[in-house]
Design brief:
The structure holds two protein chains of two kinds.
Chain A (H helix, E strand, L loop, with lengths): L1 H28 L5 H16 L10 H9 L4 H9 L10 H18 L15 H16 L3 H15 L9 H4 L2 H28 L4
Chain B lengths: L1 H22 L41 E4 L7 E9 L5 E8 L8 E8 L4 E2 L3 E4 L1 H8 L5 E9 L5 E8 L7 E8 L10 E3 L9 E3 L4 E2 L5 E8 L3 E9 L2 E7 L6 E8 L5 E7 L8 E7 L7 E9 L6 E4 L4 E6 L8 E8 L6 E8 L11 E7 L6 E7 L3 E7 L1 H17 L7
Antiparallel strand pairs in B: 1-26, 2-3, 3-4, 4-5, 4-6, 7-8, 8-9, 9-10, 11-13, 12-13, 13-14, 14-15, 16-17, 17-18, 18-19, 20-21, 21-22, 22-23, 24-25, 25-26
The chains are: A mainly alpha, B mainly beta.
């Protein structure tokens, strides 16, 4: 069981690394690749990350990445993977804002500020599970079904002990998701402000 | 329509999630390993264990046995720990390599035979490459090993691994042995921190819950420096509770007072303006919540504390009872009721030497095989691991001595 869990974790991370590489390539070339090209690239890069390459390395590349990142949260992983889907919509700014606020409130306390440890809630607090479900429900009501799917899959993965962690927090949030949410939120704010300033200039009475 | 399907799936996830929470074990009380204090008569043993020895006319108490853990050929050794084996022997674990934190550091083990007072040849229990293969991730270095006896009789070895950075980047892994430490399963990672699982370490022995699970005193040592109490079910953390907060206390050592009541002593890591004493936390609900209590008035120079409770209710501590440096190591004793600690033996003391010549005596670890005796190991100048054995008779005599001091005068200053 442990070996299977380790293999699955490495496969997940190899695919995630491949997805990140494809996203970077798309950004660099400033064009959206056709679906078939994405699939071929992910298959190639995923295998490159998953299999041991030798060359003086004791482990596959994904294991080196995993040594630093650990297992990514299911939500972040699915968010990354789904961003390559052809019909992928942009993530709502409200979601990014909510994740950023939760992360800012969560990490300081989870890392030692005071005697209350919110991370401990993730091991089996019904109240915390209800809060996560409520968050997913709000995503659904806001017509963002992808968010509902991601959180629901994360809860099932936690219950099935899919990753090494037995803590629900590790399935719904990780530092990369938090950093992405913070950057994306402030980036979106900056864009809006810039757009507003430009429109103000264009339509300012002369 | 897609939204309805998604919400139905969420409902399914909710049901599975609540069923999972419902299946989790309730928090169990501590197992009380030591019965209530009893009055014993001093029973001296013979001095010599030699076959040819003639029975002396005046029975006396043997001095503690002192040995060295076997040499691994490595320049640097540290963080020794012990576990009693079923046959009465003692198995030690420690790490050794070219220097602390080097890639060539491995975790070694050897067995002490109490009949011959000899250690077996050292064997490698875990090295960096085996840890990488077993954990399927890059590992840069290995650290503290801490063995525990599981409720089903198997041994579980917790050890620290680091993938990035210094010790602050540590995580705990564990592996299990069915044959008293001869062979081990593949290691498993314990997930105990939300930030890339960084910075959880282990130093002190685990305690047992009544449901057979282990309570592992651990600590965080990066952004904060505080104690954490991990509830372990085989190879995974199923709960954890904060034992202290801020940046002032690490390496908790837990004394079980009753099924619900426990006391944790820490190594202090405070800023220089604060008291250099042993921080204390207490729990009244078997570790579900901890409250910071008044310091134990024993000096602590930011170094590890080892402790043990014996069957007769006596508690012993081994620590550096000085405010700076680790050049003196002492054994203290206290009755569980009085909580008055007295120095009963100075194990090492380089105070008379100039600063440059003083050696480091650190990382003590104590266990008892039968609840009446005590085995101690500690780092000796980072070059060797010292082992000392205190017999039941010696400890009883020390207890009598502290009782005499307590009745004769006010409590003796421990620093």
């Amino acid at each position: 069981m442990n070996s299977l869990m380790q293999t699955i974790a490495l496969i997940e991370l190899a695919i995630t690394c491949a997805v990140v590489m494809v996203l970077i390539l798309q950004k660099l070339t400033q064009q959206e690749f056709p679906v078939i090209a994405k699939i071929v690239l992910i298959a190639l890069l995923g295998n490159l990350f998953f299999w041991p390459l030798g060359l003086g390395m004791e482990l596959p590349l994904a294991a080196y990445v995993r040594g630093v990142t650990g297992d990514l949260s299911i939500v972040f992983m699915l968010l990354l993977w789904s961003s390559l889907l052809p019909s992928s919509k942009t993530t709502p700014i409200t979601f990014k804002f909510a994740v950023a606020i939760i992360a800012l409130g969560f990490y300081p306390f989870a890392l030692g500020l005071g005697m209350v440890d919110p991370y401990a809630w993730g091991y089996g607090s019904s109240a915390f599970l209800i809060a996560v479900l409520a968050f997913a429900l709000v995503c659904g009501l806001a017509n963002w079904s992808k968010g509902v799917w991601m959180i629901a899959i994360a809860i099932i993965a936690w219950a099935a002990h899919w990753h090494e962690s037995a803590n629900l927090w590790d399935y719904v949030l990780d530092p990369f998701l938090a950093i992405w949410a913070l950057l994306a939120f402030f980036g979106a704010l900056h864009k809006r402000r810039k757009a507003k300033a430009q429109s103000g200039y264009l339509f300012r009475p002369g | 329509m897609s939204r309805v399907i998604a919400l139905c799936f969420l409902l399914l996830a909710a049901v599975i999630g609540f069923l999972h929470i419902d299946s989790r074990p309730a928090w169990a009380p501590f197992v009380i390993t030591n019965p209530s204090p009893v009055e014993e008569e001093l029973e001296p043993q013979l001095v010599s264990k030699s076959k040819n020895a003639i029975t002396p006319s005046r029975p006396s108490i043997p001095n503690p046995i002192a040995t060295w853990l076997p040499d691994t050929g490595a320049a640097s050794v540290h963080a020794a720990s012990l576990i009693a084996l079923k046959d009465g022997a003692v198995r030690a674990f420690w790490f050794a390599g070219s220097r602390e934190g080097a890639a060539d550091v491995s975790i070694y083990s050897a067995v002490f035979d109490p009949r011959t007072s000899n250690w077996s040849a050292p064997t490698v229990v875990m090295d960096r490459v085996s840890a990488e293969t077993g954990l399927s991730r890059y590992i840069a270095k290995l650290g503290n090993p801490v063995p525990s006896r599981m409720a089903d009789g198997r041994l579980q070895l917790f050890f620290v691994t680091v993938s990035i950075g210094g010790w602050a980047g540590s995580s705990i892994s564990s592996m299990i042995s069915d044959d008293e430490g001869l062979t081990w399963t593949k290691p498993q990672r314990l997930i105990s921190s939300p930030l890339l699982n960084l910075s959880t370490l282990v130093k002190s022995p685990a305690i047992l819950f009544a449901d057979g699970r282990l309570g592992l005193p651990a600590y965080h040592e990066w952004i904060g420096r505080f104690g954490e109490f991990l509830r372990i079910d085989a190879g995974q953390v199923i709960d954890k509770r904060r034992m202290s907060s801020g940046r002032s206390a690490i390496q908790p050592l837990v004394f079980v007072n009753s099924a619900q009541d426990g006391t944790a002593l820490f190594r202090q890591t405070r800023v220089s303006s604060q008291a250099k004493q042993v921080p204390v936390s207490q729990t009244q609900n078997a570790g579900q919540s901890w409250q910071v209590a008044e310091d134990l008035p024993i000096a602590n120079p930011n170094s590890a504390v080892a402790g043990l409770q014996l069957n007769n209710g006596v508690r012993i501590l081994v620590l550096n009872n000085i405010e700076t440096g680790r050049y003196r190591l002492t054994l203290l004793m206290s009755d569980a009721k009085s909580n008055q600690w007295q120095v009963v033996e100075v194990l090492e003391d380089d105070e008379a030497l100039p600063d440059q010549g003083r050696k480091e005596f650190s990382y003590p670890y104590l266990i008892s095989v039968d609840g009446d005796d005590a085995h101690l190991v500690y780092t000796w100048d980072r070059k060797k691991i010292r082992h000392r054995y205190f017999s039941e008779a010696w400890l009883k005599r020390a207890k009598k001595q502290i009782q005499t001091v307590e009745t004769d005068s006010t409590p003796k200053e421990v620093q």
